[in-house]
Design brief:
CATH architecture of chain A: Orthogonal Bundle
Strand order of the largest sheet of chain A: 1-2
CATH class of chain A: Mainly Alpha
Radius of gyration of chain B: 23 Å
Largest interface: A-B, 62 and 52 residues
Oligomer: heterodimer
CATH class of the largest domain in chain B: Alpha Beta
Number of domains of chain B: 2
CATH topology of chain A: MetI-like fold
Largest sheet of chain B: 6 strands, mixed
Helix content of chain A: over 70%
Order of helices and strands of chain B: HEHEHEHHEEEEHHHHEHEEHHHEHH
CATH architecture of the largest domain in chain B: 3-Layer(aba) Sandwich
Radius of gyration of chain A: 27 Å
Distance between the termini of chain A: 43 Å
Number of domains of chain A: 1
Shape of chain B: globular
Number of helices of chain A: 14
Number of helices of chain B: 15
Number of strands of chain A: 2
CATH superfamily of chain A: MetI-like
Strand content of chain A: under 5%
CATH topology of the largest domain in chain B: D-Maltodextrin-Binding Protein, domain 2
CATH superfamily of the largest domain in chain B: Periplasmic binding protein-like II
Largest sheet of chain A: 2 strands, antiparallel
Amino acid sequence: MAVATGSAPVDQTAQDARQPPTRKRRWWRSKSAIAAYIFIAPYVVFFVVFRILPAIFGIGLSFGEYSLTGALTFVGLDHYARLFADPNFWGALWVTLKYAAIAMPMTVVLSLAIAQLCNRMMRGMAFYRSIFFLPAVTSPVLSGLIFVWIFSESGPINRLLSAVGLEPISWLQDSFWVLPALALVSAWMNFGYNMLILLAGMLAIPQEYYEAAAIDGANGWQRFWRITLPSLRPALFFVLVLETVKSFQTFDTIFVMTGGGPVRASYTLTFMLYDQGFGYFDFGYASAVGVVLLIIALVFSLIQRRLVGRDD
Amino acid sequence: MRHKTTVAAGAVATSALLLVAACSGSTPTDTTDVDPEEVSGTVTFWTYPFSTIAEASWWQPYVDEFNEEYPNVEVEVVMQAWQGREESLVTSITGNNAPDVVYFNPDFVPKYADQDLLLPIDDLREDWDQFYDSSLEAMTWDGTLYGQPMLMQLQTSYCNTEVLEEAGVADCPTTWDEFRDAAPAIQEAGYYATEYNGVSTLNHTFYVYLWQAGGDVLNEDMTEATFNGPEGLQALEFIQEMVDNEWVPQEPLSIAEPFEQTDAGQGNLGYVMGSNLASTRQFIDPDVIETVPPMSNVEQVASGSVGAWSIFNTTESPEAAQAWVRFLGEPEFLEDFLSEAGYLSPRADIEGLFADDPQIAGGADYLEHLRTGVQHPNAREIIDMIRPHIQSVLLEGADPQDALDAAAAEVNGLL
């Protein structure tokens, strides 16, 4: 055994001396990598052409004045100076942050709860998962119209409140309630997609963890808190970023349900961007709003990465 | 990272429209004496669903008729949707793909003319004197005519006779005071006296009460807001009185519901100040509708709109586009179109269109009282500035004068 161990380096050295030195092929030059490039190339091309380039152009546009006739003049930081002096911008920014602060946690908690419910072997579970996913493929405009009725004075929610002896709430007419009501619609529309991501994460957690915890006497809540949640961190981080971005970008439902009202209580930055661009043809100013929205979403995503996704 | 980038793209979505720029300009030419055989080119014609005229095929016989005179002009009829109307237009213009002829309402004209995109049509035809002055004024900006009127729409005032009967109200109100007298009885009978829509364009809501009170939105040279004067205050206090007394349903103050779901669509209103009769009669029995003259206080004013054909100066075939628009303004075509779509005529020489429909025909008597809105490039922005302040009075109990002054300060900042 000792002889064999001692002779191995000698044999290897001799072999190296016989063969010319070969450079190890980098992984990104491997055949499988090239095949991957070919498969993702169409997506990358479309992404660059229809997402990246317009975004870069939009950032550039925020420093210019553009008219429908095609005239473009450079105005430097004028739009940003005007923006920061515009009380409507600060109002819209405050509404956007409030909406995101309500919608994002509401959606994530609901998604997590439904994913946990669906994470069990049960007869007909595939059917329930499909049902839960349905809102994700429903048109936001249609959802908005349905929820206008649901939140109406004579709608089911207020009837339910009346049935248990509570006063009906003017969900979409009251500045206090309008954002929670809109956030609820957002949660309803988005939880199905998030549920799938979280469920996939839950199914990937080894059962041994739960068995070991059960032997140690951990109850259901402790298993969820100590095993499921930490193991879900990558999926949860993805969902958090996704929901943050969606919250900042929400437009369709607000447009259909409240038009930004009452009294601008649901007038978000995306609504302002739409008004300035399509309504008033002030494309440079609208782009400045978009850039601010981009920076905010970026900052929040980085904070989330630091808090939730730092180990990934 | 992909999602962050998605934000960038989504947040500046409008920029996607702006990659292609530069529009060529066409100069107006007098084409009334041009030989039709010599006129050639393609005319892209954007129309919209007008009542029962919802298919592009409806236009084909008229295109054929036009081609008998202009054989070398190809008219491409594109039936657009009302929804996303302005977005489609902006996208097409910035994509250097604007239509040649398009349907416009009065508030579009100053906005697009101010962007130097429209072809003046003062010399398009010789019989302008046959068109109602109010229809031509609605399509004029800065002394130049930019649209050939094709229809006039009066928001008809009417009462629901069943509701009035139950409430014991003998006559349908036609003045603010008569309305104040009738409203409590209608409310007592379990109905709403009327409706105030707090989310729609002010052209059909607050402005109408303001005009009826004798006021105006802006001063004559459009450099300063005047809606916060005594007339504006009177108008807003009148609306506030309706809301505070619950003479109107609460939801339309801040929510845009489909018409059929509203109390107006369900026949729960005693009086409606402005309505599209053709749509209303799909849901309300015409036999219970009693049309009345437009409401008056200091002045008698009805809201409504004018529809017109405008020509973009980006057209490569200005003569062909003008010829097509001229054809669309001929009495023979308008008679067919208006009788089918149910709108009023912008031409005085078309009479007896709705002889068998006195409810619609009666609207023609009040066209002189028609006000369509504020003729200003920033008209929509002005509305968007005033509307939240009106809502603050109606929903949150803000002081009407303070709210109007705050709105006026915003508007003056814009002007």
